[in-house]
Amino acid sequence: MSQFTGPPALGGQVPDPAQVAASFETWLDEEPASLVAARVAEPDYERRVEVVRALMADLYDAGWTRLGWPEEVGGLGGTIAHRAAIWEVLARRGVTGMALFEHTEILAPALVALGPREFVSEALPAFLSGRELWSQGFSEPDAGSDLAGLRTTARLDGDEYVIEGRKVWTSWARYATWCLLLARTGDPGSRHRGLTAFVVDLRDPGVEVRAIEQANGTDELAEVVFDGVRVPADRIVGELGGGWTVAMHILSHERGTFAWFRHCFLYPQLLDAGERALERDASALGGALLDLAAVSAASAAGVSVHAAERTLGPAAAYTKLLLCAAEQSVNDATLAGDGDLAVGLQLPEVAMRRQEYLFSRIVTVYGGSQQMQLDTIAKQILRLP
Ligand SMILES: Cc1cc2nc3c(=O)[nH]c(=O)nc-3n(C[C@H](O)[C@H](O)[C@H](O)COP(=O)(O)OP(=O)(O)OC[C@H]3O[C@@H](n4cnc5c(N)ncnc54)[C@H](O)[C@@H]3O)c2cc1C
User: Above 90 in pLDDT, residue 2?
Assistant: First the structure.
């Protein structure tokens, strides 16, 4: 067990999130070099990952990103509300975004709640400190919206499972060490009842990661082939046959609480758009601000639910829709006031704004398409026929 008792400014206690935020601000006043670097627009995705990795390492070493995670797995105690406060401060201090560390708020909560304890107590510190990164292997070429129809299989052979199949749109796989993978352990027609979640080491023989270049010029997405990949039987997350529960836990974060973490970085982007606007389009800026306020309210409620160790369930779909609307209206406001974006200047900050704008067009797809969120609301909340 680590001897670390807490970030210096907190003296080993876990005070409320507002106090954590205030102490963190004071610590950041020292302007660590990794913070200064993370404020600079960096359109080269590979370099951006390295910059944020360095920031994560410093924050971990100082204890800030250990707050909000249980002590048994390397954290310092506290809840998601502490993590929410830390990210809010980082965004306010000009960090442009967390790149693939966004996955800490999508995958790590499920790993901590449902993963094999011994493994997670090593994996979480490695993740939070930027040493080992993670990806999510759910979608397949013929199983996106219909996730329960996925075909990747896991067959028990001695004390290992053998994985065969193909995943697609796997964010950040080319940077990741681990993949939280959903595979079929039941019979082919078992739908959601026959799925199990595994932790797969992407460095193992039989794994091939093929990057997919996106329209915005980054290649953070990938196709991942699993050809006879052997996984120890104790690398199951949740129960054998309980993969759907794991997926729903993850989606409760990806569609619900993640919006809090993401929207923190959209506020400064909108302020920036307002300052650069050639002619201030008050309605575009105002509309985007209202969209952000809606995300703020909905996702803060989601953070409170998870802080109380519950999950959002289908209600997370609302928050995802609100986040999509805000991502797009903030970027519409950016485009409206930004002649540079249209004429194709390659200054880093312009290139990054262009990247963000193009990415905002596809946010309605990840974590389940917009139509599927509406479907969830119609069927599971409104009980429409
Ligand atoms: C930026 C990004 C990052 C992603 N990251 C990951 C990741 O890390 N891991 C991962 O596993 N996946 C990831 N995905 C994949 C994502 O989850 C899927 O793209 C999504 O679930 C949709 O599946 P699909 O692409 O197969 O589209 P399809 O399911 O084929 O859907 C195509 C269209 O048909 C509509 N449609 C389908 N079924 C219905 C229905 N029953 N009713 C109404 N409309 C319907 C959809 O809304 C959509 O418009 C990512 C996607 C994007 C864009």
Answer: no
